[in-house]
Amino acid sequence: MHVPSGQAAADDSDGTHPDRFVRALTPTCEAAARGDLEARSCLDPAMDTVPELPTLHDAPNRTLDVSGAFAR
Question: Which of 20, 32, 49, 66 has its CA 20 to 30 A from that of 40?
Answer without folding.
Answer: 49
